[in-house]
Amino acid sequence: MKISYYPGCTLKTKAKNLEEAAVASMAALGIEFEELSRWNCCGAVHSLADDDLIHHVAPVRDLVRAMEQGSDTVVTLCSMCYNTLARANMLMRQDETKRKTINDFMSEEKDYHGEVEVLHFLTFLRDQVGFDALRAKVKTPLNGLKVATYYGCTLVRPRDVSIEPTGDRQLMKSFLEALGATPVDFPDATLCCGSYQILSNPEAALDVVSGILGSAVSAGADALILSCPLCEYNLAKKQEHLLESNKIAKKIPVFYFTQLLAVALGLGGEACRFDLNEKSAVEFLKAKNVPVAASV
Amino acid sequence: MPIEISEKTVKRDFIEKISKLSGQDVYKCYQCGTCGGACPMSDHMDAVPRKIMRMAQFGMEEAVTGSKTFWTCASCHSCSVNCPRGIDLARVMEAIRLLTLRKNLNMVEVSGLPAETVEELPQIALVSCFRKLTS
Ligand code: SF4
Ligand code: SF4
């Protein structure tokens, strides 16, 4: 059976470093995904009100596209897309009345009943590739790299779409171990980064961000990985400002998990688009002798 | 300050609207405060989530909708996964938000955002913020 890949809006613009590193890694691992030929924004968040069905139409339409493509699985890289698609899928599987209303509303589409499985790429790596097989493919082990595993919210909450039992924090740990790095669990690993409140209440969001960064540094990490472009904006792009305003004592390099995957697979950093990361993050990799692209 | 709670002050239709929109029974809350402890935004809330639940139980519509708590909520579901009574508080927050947004009020004025901010932010930040905080 085929597997579809759903990129989502941000991966085609601000987060090319999340996507391109992943696509190159998939090729290196011999994974064949077919990008959905016609996809739309998933809506980024799941609607929580019982009468608000219209906002489920967007993610369900993406799932219909995957079904049409003959896929039984759709894989995503962005945590927010994963959460939104997985929850819409669950709704279509479990709530008969709402399913009927949504299907009736999309009368031009085939009826959807949750035929497609929604997976995050990390889950796919664990279950379909396997971390032992991944370890065997590593060409540039990330020895001596102490990396904090930041999950944020949408990979682990709510429980029924969590990529592993909530609170386990094993998946990113095993992933990093397979790459030869040293995973660092830290108390704030699943604390929210403030999410969209960075726009509406930046002060509150930045307070949480400072706490998370401080917590990772205190735990002994010298870098941090994540899988969400909104988390990346808050935790990486805002660091300079936080340092200037004395809200954090030092910066910590932030990477998408796919970027560390690609360098470990020996892709030499060419595919990683490190130019979209913070300069200090790139300096850090160079200092650790991790290959980055010559142009960066 | 004493608060009068009587048949006259309890807005039953408000309680009903919340439970209808959220699918949650606010009376299940036994005021343990676990939600606020788990909430990353609670330091910036004028009323902790527990207090919102209590006020909702008493149908204190004005006090609930007048607070900034649900505008400060980031929909992170920490409260929901930790509530020992199994209340999905993120849904209660959404219900309260919608009761206001559906009066055609916006918490974020899209047209007032600086162009640099819009340029700089990842799309998912804009989409999620507009979804949660505009009508
Ligand atoms: S955690 Fe649940 S029961 Fe405890 S105060 Fe919050 S809503 Fe009420
Ligand atoms: S969902 Fe909202 S109220 Fe609940 S913990 Fe997160 S920010 Fe706090």
Automatic annotation (TrEMBL), chain A:
Pfam families, per the entry: CCG (PF02754)
Gene3D superfamilies: 1.20.1050.140
Lineage of the organism: Bacteria, Pseudomonadati, Thermodesulfobacteriota, Syntrophobacteria, Syntrophobacterales
UniProt KW Oxidoreductase keyword: yes
Keywords: Oxidoreductase
Domain Cysteine-rich residue range list: 4-85, 147-235
GO molecular function list: oxidoreductase activity
Source organism (scientific name): Syntrophobacter fumaroxidans (strain DSM 10017 / MPOB)
Matching PANTHER family: COB--COM HETERODISULFIDE REDUCTASE SUBUNIT B 1
Transmembrane segments: none
The protein's name: Cysteine-rich domain-containing protein
